[in-house]
# Entry
Amino acid sequence: MATAQKMPKIVNGVNVDNLFTTIDAIKATPKIAKFNFRVQNTWEGASCNSTTVGAFHGAGQEQARQRPFVLQADEPAVLLGQDTAANPVEHLLHALASCVTTSMVYHAAARGIHIEEVESTLEGDIDLHGFLDLDKNVRKGYEGIRVTFKVKADVPEEQLQDIVELGTGHSPVFDSLLKGVPLSVKAERL
# Structure
């Protein structure tokens, strides 16, 4: 007699059974929680460059991808670029939006909260006086970022903010931007 195979519990497209198996594995072997992500960037001229995303280290070993991803960057014409791709600060907004969204969806799934739709709008303000060294009192990066989420979920209206906070409270990109992260930069001859 064949044993019936248990169907995985899927919430928000997330296999919750696998999520909790991963959590249990990390509890049992904490060192597998350490990940190292890396990218390789190449300048292509003027404001164009491309970044290749390939293998990474995680779960105690090197993790290969089926194929590398290539991210293009450029600047809009008003910033002397050719406008062939999003610029780096737009990529930062994308990284923030996608990381908070993924974190929100995963943590909601773990709590059994069904999300039907998520949309977000992000805006950031930069003053070129900083980038161009025209005013030492103006920072070179974003002066502020505003994020608005629209969420359709199986919760009362007053709990929508709690769902968004699952994302902001667990997102590595949000945490890195909010708290800062140590950076080291060195130069080597090519």
Observations:
- The CA atoms of residues 96 and 112 lie 24 Å apart.
- The longest strand covers residues 115-125.
- The two ends are 66 Å apart (CA to CA).
- The beta strands are 10-11, 14-15, 39-45, 48-53, 56-58, 61-63, 69-73, 115-125, 144-153.
